[in-house]
Structures are given as C-alpha cells and as structure tokens.
Amino acid sequence: MTSPEQNTPSPGRCPVTGATADEPIPLYGSAYKSDPYDLYREMRDAGPVHRVRFPSGIAAWLVTGYEAAHQALNDPRLGKNHGLGNDDWRALASIMPEPQHSQLQVHLLHQDPPKHTDMRRLVLDAFAPRRIEALRPRFQELADSLIDALPDEGGADLVQGFAAHYPFQVLAEVIGLPPELAARFDRDWGKVVQPVGPADPGRPVYEGRLRGLQTYIADVVAHKREHSDDDLLSRLVVAKDRRELSQEELDSMIFQLLVAGQEPVTNQISTMLIALLRHPDQLERLRDEAELPPRAIEELLRYDSAFELTTWRFFAEDSDLHGTRIPAGDSVIVSLCAANRDPGQFPDADTLDLDRTPNAHLAFGHGIHFCPGAALARAELQIAIGTLLRRLPGLRPAGDLDELVWIPAVLARGVNSLPVAYDKRI
Predict the structure, then answer these.
(1) DSSP secondary structure letter of residue 5
(2) How confident is the model at residue 22 (pLDDT cuts 50, 70, 90)?
(3) What is the domain-level CATH number for residue 395?
(4) 13 pLDDT higher than 70
(5) Sign of CA dihedral 312, 313, 316, 322
(6) CA atoms of 338 and 306, how far apart (whole Å)
(7) Cis peptide upstream of residue 114 (ω within 30 degrees of 0)
(8) DSSP H stretches of helix in 261-319
C-alpha cells in the first residue's frame, strides 16, 4: 500500500480544486449528499489530508484513505474534548446554544481518557454481544410487528413505516426506557444534531426542539430515580447519585443514547435498502438465503456507511498530520466513507461484493472510540434487512432512486423517505 506521506499535498492548498486554505473544499449541497464518492476518490488520489468547509461555515481538516483514517482514529495526540477547540472553531462550531451546549455535549463522543474510560465502562454491559444475542427474539418480534402494520400489497414508505421506528423500539428495550416514556419521544428531537446557525430562519424551531428534548431527559431521570431497575438508564442515574457522573454528564449520556442510539441505524437501514434496490440481483440472492449472511451486512456497512464522518478531533498543539501542519485547536474529521472505498484496502472498492472477506471496514470507527453499540447495530440490521426482504416479495423502487432527497446532516448519510413497491406482504 502506498504510504500517505508519498502523496501529500502542499500545506495550505487543495489539490482537487486548487483552492488555498482560505478556500476549503465545500462538503455540502444536494449533489454531494446524494453521492460523495467521486469527490472522495479525487481527494484520496491527491492526498490524505484536505481543508474542507461545512454548511454552517465551519472549516476542518478532513482525513481520507484507509491507512490515514485508521492511524488518525488511533492517534493519541488527537483529543475529542471540545475544550481543545480554538477560538476560530468555537466561534462557528458551538452551534448548540447555552445552557444546552454545556449540559448536553459532555457525553462519550466528546471525552478523552481517563474520563472517557470511566464513562464508557458504565454502558458496556448493556451492549455486550451475549446480552444482545439473548434479546434477538424480542428484536424479531418488534420487526415483524412493524411489517404487519404495512399495507398488504402495493407498497409503502420503508423509512416512515419501518426504519424510523424500529431502532428506537429496540433501543428502548435495551436501555430500559419504559413504554409510557418511549411513546412520548418525538423523533424530531433527533434533528438537534443537524446544524442550524444563529441567523438561520429555522433557529427558533431548533431551540424549541432542544428545550423539549432537555425536558424529556429530565423526566426520564426523575422516573428512573423513582422506579429504579436493573437497566442501563437506572444504572446511569445511580452513578450520578454516587458522584461518578455529574448532572451534565448524566444528561449528556442519555442525550447520546436517545439520538446516536437510533438515528444512525435508521439511516443505515435506508442506505442498505437503497444499495440493494440498485442491485436487484444481489437483493434477490439475499431474499432467498435462509439466514442473512453476516458478511453481507458487513459489506453493506462498508459500501455506504450511514455514519459518513466522525465527530471533531483536535491537536493540543501545532502538529504534523501526514505531512500537513495542523494548527492547535483546528478540527480534524475522518471520512469513514472515503476510507471504506479505498481500493488500496478493498479490491474493487466501488463494487458491492456480498462475499467480500476479509472486510475490516471502519463503519463503526476504530480505537478507543469504537462504537460501543456495534453489536446491537449489527443485530438490528441483520434482522431488519432479512425480515424486510423475506416478508415483502417483489421488493422494488416505487420511483426513481436518483430523485431521493438525502438528509442535509453534516456527519450522516440517509433519507427521510424511501417509497417502495412489493407484491404482497407475507
């Protein structure tokens, strides 16, 4: 494999567009969100590190390519705590207003050791593979119940009718969210992770969602304090009462569970279905399999990862990253999608190969921030995709897949609507 340093662009200049550091590559717009892979290919070919800009105006350094991404995800110099961000980053990136930024943004994704180690330990048992395997029959019941509610024949929107609900129902079972509280959860609250700047006309709605979610989290904490049980939410409340967590850390961890614990899986179901609908021969093959091969799910995760980019990382001091000088406090982001399509790691990387092995994709990240819910996500995806293919024979697009509207989220890939047709629900 070619060393990233052998192909590094000159610092301060983008090899794709020729732009200087003051003109970063834009990572937004409908064309980019629909299919970012041509741009990622150009960036990978030119070098591993690029200056980019997001729709809110935030500039960052983007890492592309498998080897460079793998190294960055394991680089102990790169911290996740927002306190490491410099003034330039903070002026644009701290979009969530106070007090919510301080109260909801100190979860696992924004912590470094030793605090990260202690907080992560609190959630690992709930997502342990052995526990997830024991819950599979219940996950299957939930999937079947949602499909039972779809029209008998003709078609449906598989996001609105299935993918938008299934991951949250599973999550509620796993973390111990009681039915009465689960029924109150508003999926629109999850949109608080999408950037809405202070001058955006949608800012009042955004801030209303934040307040609604914060009130909901307070109600969850109060309920679990009064009705403690042997579940993750109860254990987190107990940890706060034992002073292992601050109130802000408790609220942030519940925030992370409720949002990061479901939206990525919703989006991943949609990207997997779109990939299969674009490859009907592969869809038919999987439909006829008695058990959906785990390797097929791994390949679908690699082929179009719903968690497109990682969250911010920072150097505490000016540092070299694959030949590019990164100022202290500038944000560094890793493109998981670009890494997962690197032909240096994956032969015929742009081909959907359901038999691909080995398949060391980075869809769940790597290193100490590897997704703690990976085993749960894999089980959900295997059950969701396998059940949809089995119970909706003749599954096919109900329109032009090229006209799907992709969500404008900075870090994620997915759609809010996926109309399909099928012969008859079984």
Answers:
(1) G
(2) low
(3) 1.10.630.10
(4) no
(5) negative
(6) 12
(7) yes
(8) 263-278, 280-288, 294-303
pTM: 0.92
Six token digits for residue 244:
């292992």
Distance of CA 250 to the CA centre of its chain: 21
Q: What are phi and psi of 292, to 5 degrees?
A: -65, 120
Average pLDDT over every residue of 8-24: 51
Of 170, 254, 180, nearest to 213 (Cα)? 254
Q: Is the torsion defined by CA of 89, 40, 267, 260 positive or negative?
A: negative
In terms of Cα–Cα distance, which of 37, 112, 86 is closest to 302?
Answer: 37
- List, in sequence order, every residue forming a beta bridge with 324; answer none if it has no partner: 321
- Does residue 269 register a pLDDT over 50? yes
CB atoms within 10 A of CB 267: 26
Domains of the chain: total: 1
Which tokens go with 389?
């293919």
By residue range, what is the domain housing residue 203?
4-422
39 near 32, Cβ under 8 Å?
yes
CA distances for 424 relative to 165, 234, 297, 341, 384, angstroms? 22, 43, 25, 36, 18
* Span 363-379, average pLDDT: 97
